[in-house]
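Technical note accompanying the year-one report. For the benefit of new consortium partners, we illustrate the data format agreed upon in the data management plan: each record pairs a sequence with a structure-token string. No post-processing was applied to the example shown here.
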Amino acid sequence: MAKKRIVMALGHHALGTNLPEQKAAVAETAKIIADFIQDGWQVAITHGNAPQVGMIHTAMNEFGKQHDGYSMAPMSVCSAMSQGYIGYDLQNSIRTELVRRGIYKSVSTILTQVTVDTYDEAFYTPIKKIGRYMDAQEAALEEEKGNHVVEEPGKGFCRIVASPQPVAIVEIDAIKTLLAADQVVIACGGGGIPVMEQGSHLKGASAIIEKDLASGLLAKEIDADVLMILTGVDNVILGFGTQEEHSIHHMTAAVAKEYADEGQFGFASMLPKIMASVDFVENGKGRKAIITSLTKAQEALLGEAGTTIV
């Protein structure tokens, strides 16, 4: 009998925002992931990278400005770097926790590229902030290079990049092979490295793919039974910030779409999680998506916590 598969999408609460925080956070996160592996699940892990990729982008570009002979790093390279060092901490922490439990299996990080459409409308309306805040002079220089910049009153200027839809996962066959061998896989970190197909060549795109949408695509491609999106709240909330605010514990994909059409979910926060869940559930049989916090993961799988979409 085939094992059940789950994609666990980790938010920044599971990773921390800097190197010391990440070391401590992933050690605790690994324990929860190991619980699922010990219970017999085949596990694929995805994760966010917003603080980490911003730190890398800032460090590489500041260094390039100040030292002759060193070039600045494009977004695709910064994304690849973030996948590597987040994956390094995650896979070692998970391996350590598994060995402590007498479970011996490989944990691998796949440097994952995700294709995007060159003509995606998102490239005309960038929304993802990246890097540090700049003054007006620095912002002007960024715009001269063709980059998009937005001003935030009281903070300064910040570069913004596009967030196109994920189309396909380039390394999907490698991911499937590892899962079929009952190995633990970390993939599509930060939404994947965004690339555009140019003949036989893959060119990095100046963009950040929404992590939850890439997680949903991965869950579909590996035919997972469960997509679990782990975030900073225990449940999906309706009427957020109003007197009618309340948690929702169970809904169908159709109802979730109705709530989305009503504008119930934040465009850059909960909405991508809902849309990824709906797409995953609607494109297979017997699937369910769960949105909850890391600490409620086990309870949510049993239907005792979180928000389940079927």
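Partners are asked to follow this layout when depositing records. The longest strand covers residues 128-134.
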